[in-house]
Design brief:
With 234 residues, the protein is of the alpha+beta class. It has one domain. It is built from 6 helices and 6 strands; from the N terminus they run αβββαβαββααα. Strands 1-2-3-4-5-6 form a 6-stranded antiparallel beta sheet. Helix 1 packs across helix 5. The longest helix is centred in the N-terminal third of the chain and has 48 residues. The N and C termini lie far apart (54 Å). The relative contact order is 0.13.
Length: 234
């Protein structure tokens, strides 16, 4: 009669998880941080190129890049400010995502763990005049795994141009194309006036503060929800 193997001790299971999954997450984090450095490099090059070109057309318009630290950077494109932030945690792609049906993830489940870069759109005046109540909107999320493969979740063209995870590998070319797509979307995303009833009453205190700060929250789409637009983020 064959001997029944002894159950593995919790200590051994913990060590296995540390050596495999936790180690893999460190790999994902390192690759995402490497690519975020590339993003900053390409964003600065793109901003410098656009700044020089637009000055010849209309010197009133500015394109300015600034680095906010290891995990954040932004570019001001005239009236828009686009902020890129790298999350310091690693995420497993939701099991309901259709990418799990593809061979790339089915061949290796660990490819389904990603670092994430979030892309937010604000009005430049919100920062210039310290309007802390103003709203910004998530326009895209960039997912990067430990092999440097990536895909983008986003609005309109951002939602379908970069979704072939098995083939898309991040380097300078794809990064530049992704950044250009982000700026194209942002510049085509117009400011809408808030509903009349929402701004029809103000307090005395709010009126006194108007010189220092806008008394009404401002955003490109007040009351905006991604689900209401074509090509929702999921």
């Amino acid at each position: 009669m064959a001997n029944t193997p002894e159950p593995r001790k919790p200590r051994d299971l913990i060590l296995d998880l540390l050596a495999t999954r936790s180690g893999m997450k460190q790999d994902v984090y390192a690759k995402c941080k490497e690519n975020f450095a590339l993003l900053k490099q390409e964003l600065k090059a793109l901003a410098d190129d656009l700044a020089a070109a637009i000055t010849l057309r209309d010197p009133r318009l500015k394109v300015e890049f600034s680095e906010q630290g290891d995990f954040s950077t932004k570019v001001v494109v005239a009236g828009d400010t686009v902020v890129f932030t790298m999350h310091t945690n690693v995420f497993r792609l939701d099991q309901s995502n259709s990418l799990w049906k593809g061979s790339y993830l089915q061949e290796d489940e660990q490819r389904g763990y990603f670092g994430v870069v979030n892309v937010y759109n604000f009005l430049s005046d919100s920062f210039r005049y310290n309007r802390e109540r103003d709203l910004g909107y998530l326009v895209a999320r960039l997912f990067i795994n430990r092999e440097g493969h990536f895909f983008v979740q986003g609005k309109k063209q951002l939602g379908f141009l970069y979704n072939d995870l098995g083939k898309l590998v991040m380097d300078a070319g794809p990064m530049r194309a992704t950044l250009e797509s982000v700026l194209l979307y942002v510049l085509d995303f117009d400011l809408l006036a808030p509903p009349y009833d929402q701004v029809s009453q103000v307090t005395v205190e709010e009126m006194k503060q108007v010189e220092a700060n806008s008394m009404v929250s401002t955003g490109k789409r007040l009351g905006f929800r991604f689900q209401a637009d074509t090509g929702e983020i999921t």
